[in-house]
Amino acid sequence: MNSLPSRVFETAVNELAKLPGIGRKTAMRMALHLLKSRREDAEAFGMSIIRMHNEIRYCIECGNISDEELCTICNSPKRDKSMVCVVEDIRDVIAIENTGQFSGVYHVLGGIISPMEGIGPNDLHIQGLIEKVESGVVAEIILALPTTIEGDTTNFYIYKKLHASAIHVTTIARGISVGDELEHADEVTLGRSIVNRTLYENTIRKKNQ
């Protein structure tokens, strides 16, 4: 790999290339764009990243990103607190919110069970979900995890943990292709998958038939 004429510029390119989906050529174009931009614009860009790291908090109720102790979703009186949508990470909250089809609240696990990556149930925010159910406020848990082996494993683990409770445990309809992540689904398909959700135990029966 040829080095660039400026070590400072090369450092900037290398840092930008660490972003997901950004190759070295794209990182170089981005760095050149920032170099040619006005100083105040470049400084505003840099400060926005620093502020994000220093000031963004995680909602104490659901784990979503927030500027306050409670995120705007959990803090809204218009949201149905009895309906909790369980997602892998914050990207899924954003994807589902963009559909405009869900009026409940969320619970962000912070990942999914993946033995290959050394991620077990204790590494996820599953206990907090169980405590929500035990509080008596929740009537339905919607499992909206990726349609992958890891996602299915996590769904089944949560279902078994909540099976003794009197709540409904549902899962999004399979409008999402197997192996897909929620953030990559179009809004119409994802919205329909939320609206047409089914009881999770029914999906187990189908797999065992």
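the 2nd protein, sequnce then structure:
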Amino acid sequence: MEARRGLLIILSGPSGVGKGTIRKKVMEDKSLNLAFSISCTTRLPRPLERDGVDYYFVKKDYFEKLIREDELLEWAEFVGHYYGTPRGPVEKMREEGKNVILEIEVEGAKQVMAKCRGNDVVSIFIMPPSLEALVERIHSRKNERRTNIEERLAKATREMGLKYNYQYVVLNDDVDRAAEEVKNIIRDKLNATIES
């Protein structure tokens, strides 16, 4: 019997909404056969971030080569740095039957949703409980400069208006509850693809 191609799970939302924390909790559920797509970026690592685990930290000229050669599913430039998802590893994991999570910003999610359509793609927008909660979370990142914080907040406000472009919206009012909701969405999608 031929292996089922894995789902492409787009987990998106404004910067600081808790995508990474939710994604890590969701990935603890081994029954979902999940794999994480590691993005690449030209920014420097934050404290505790590791190359090849959290991101691939690359030089700007290498990233621009990936853009020219159409090796990225999506990419964006934000606060002076590039971020993007390498296409090859995602396709390889999906062909192996793994359900791949892309934890990406809204602009990148828009690109992926335009390129990747079908019943094996699921898009989930993570929504903060309030703008005030998002402000507090972004301010808690001690390594962010004030201008970066202001840019992130302006962008987040615009992005929250795009939540209806996604199949699902999950409120991150409680990380454990939000992670359970995401797991249930993935389970339902897996069951629907098996039945079809």
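The helical segments are 19-27, 60-68, 87-95, 106-115, 131-139, 146-160, 175-195. The chain has one domain: 8-195.
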